[in-house]
Hints:
By secondary structure, this protein is α+β, with helices and mostly antiparallel strands. The chain has 8 helices and 14 strands.
Amino acid sequence: MSSADAEGKAVSNGIPAPDLDLPYPDKPEIITENLQKLTELAPNERTQFIFRNLIAKLHEFVKETSITTDEWMTAIQFLTRTGQTCTNLRQEFILLSDVLGVSALVDALNNPQVGNTTESSVLGPFFTEDAPDVAQGESIASEGKGDYLYVEGRVFDPQGKPIAGAVIDTWETDGNGFYDTQYAKREKPDCRGRLRSDSDGKYFYRAVVPVPYPIPGDGPVGDLLLALGRPNMRPNHLHMMIEAPGYRKLTTALYPDGDEWLSCDAVFGVKKSLVINYKDIDDEAEARRRGFPKGSKFKLLNFDLILPTVEESKAAFAQLAKQNAANAL
Length: 329
């Protein structure tokens, strides 16, 4: 809705007409040229740079494809439905970004690997801020949510020094392939939790074995994948987000080997260094020692997390940005 004055009359945003030579857009190319001139009015140089490139690529796409009015309206309606599908717990736009590979690309460009540090992976649309705090060794999943999994490891800096007090957010699907937010009746967070590494950098907690699952297919993104003839499956994985003062925040995921969807992950999240192997344990005494209430079998996942410092990360990002700019010339 437009802004209105005290008398109820529509008013502008207060920016005066620009003193620019803008010919009437009688030809397609003039539309692009005029818009690029107007883009120079942006007071922020970074904003100018981003929108100059966005406009150039978008207009180039329209011209190259000779897209029809009906096709463009279909695209607008698709984006409208994408926004309307979003809720406080469901983020369809993140899912769209994921399946188009944009999330993975932005993640890769913004998180270049520094030495032997742990590589990042996509956040995905199922992260929530309400994960409960859990103590070391406790379970992030309620009983009966799937086969037992025990996760352990240490958090280090690149020189091998333990990082104490690192906050680890972790979340996963249950044994049915659903995140807690996908259930109509979500009474509390489940299969997710938040813990801290101890003085030696150690972390350990109980979970359930995640399973491969389809990304939501009941919305516009699901319709898009059907139209493109693409599967909507993700390989099974365990999400982790690690934060510690002075270190770059790491968002990653661990992918057990042998899953048929590893190489064709619907959201392009798998990296070779993040493919791990479980150890199968069948020992009732060991299961009880680790806190599992029944049975003798569980899977063990051991993985160390290595975080780069903020300074190291910034230097690596600057170097990558410089290389990308040179390659674009």
